[in-house]
Amino acid sequence: MPLSDWQLLPPDLDPQRLPNHVAVIMDGNGRWAQQRGFPRMMGHRRGVRTLKALVRCCQDWGIPSLTVYAFSTENWQRPLEEVNFLMQLFEQMLWQELAVMHQQGVHLQFIGDNSSLPPSLQAIMDYARQTTAGNRSFYLNVALNYGSRQEIVRACQAMGRQIQGGQLNPDEITENSFAQHLDTAAIADPDLLIRTSGELRLSNFLLWQLAYAEIYSTPILWPDFDRVEFYRALLAYQRRDRRFGRLSSS
Ligand code: IPE
Ligand code: IPE
Ligand code: MG
């Protein structure tokens, strides 16, 4: 199929059965660069390009919501040089892309604990969130300094404080009310999780929210993940039988 044809949803995908929400662990930037003899940072730069292209693709193909793992709470353990580079890259990307994303109707949200991010990055994140708050055509959620266990602990702390203050009865806590205390309170659970670079682990990503997501892993490294690879992931997704514990989905 010529590349121009990938603008439209490939005909063998059923538009009625696309995932509403795709989550992605964007992994393999470092290896992509190292394989080419480049510094790891080059891989991260190419990774940003891939993300921009995927946002466009989701919009073209009619997938309304995307959550991407950009930096984990564990990623602080990397060399300071790489951590600093990534923080600057996130900031630069937001400054550069905000106007275009806003124009495209992207609603930007962030999940994770932003309080320990550099103040200048927090400022542009707040600005981006506020600027795009009214957009409804596409939802991009970026997990930045995100760790699912930490998120769950923060939710428990918030509920504990409500119990202590007499506003919450422990017996009335439900799955739904608990989920409302997570960073993803306003976001439906992902239908499909894609992890690039061949790893078969969650790395502390959306442990609660992925309870019934379909998982797709590909050996493709994140900078090489293109529309064809996304099509393959969606095709695999549409072949799954999502039973949710029942005997059959039909
Ligand atoms: C994913 O790529 C991006 C971040 C974690 C920020 P990696 O940097 O983990 O790349 P690999 O896994 O080392 O190849
Ligand atoms: C997960 O990738 C985090 C992001 C993609 C941001 P890692 O590369 O940090 O995960 P591990 O260390 O291989 O589990
Ligand atoms: Mg990695």
From TrEMBL:
Entry-linked InterPro entries: UPP_synth-like, UPP_synth-like_CS, UPP_synth-like_sf
CDD domains on file: Cis_IPPS
Top-rank EC class of the record's enzyme: transferase
E.C. code: 2.5.1.-
Note on cofactor: Binds 2 magnesium ions per subunit.
Binding site for Mg(2+): 27, 214
GO molecular function: ditrans,polycis-polyprenyl diphosphate synthase [(2E,6E)-farnesyl diphosphate specific] activity; magnesium ion binding
Catalytic center residues: 27, 75
Record's keyword annotation contains Flavoprotein: no
Gene Ontology BP term (one): polyprenol biosynthetic process
A Pfam short name: Prenyltransf
Entry cofactors: Mg(2+)
UniProt keywords, alphabetically: Magnesium, Metal-binding, Transferase
Binding locations of substrate: 28-32, 40, 44, 72-74, 76, 78, 195, 201-203
NCBIfam families named in the record: PRK14830.1 (NF011405), PRK14831.1 (NF011406), uppS (TIGR00055)
Quaternary structure and partners: Homodimer.
UniProt similarity note: Belongs to the UPP synthase family.
Function: Catalyzes the condensation of isopentenyl diphosphate (IPP) with allylic pyrophosphates generating different type of terpenoids.
Name of the protein in its database record: Isoprenyl transferase
Organism: Neosynechococcus sphagnicola sy1
Lineage of the species this protein comes from: Bacteria, Bacillati, Cyanobacteriota, Cyanophyceae, Neosynechococcales
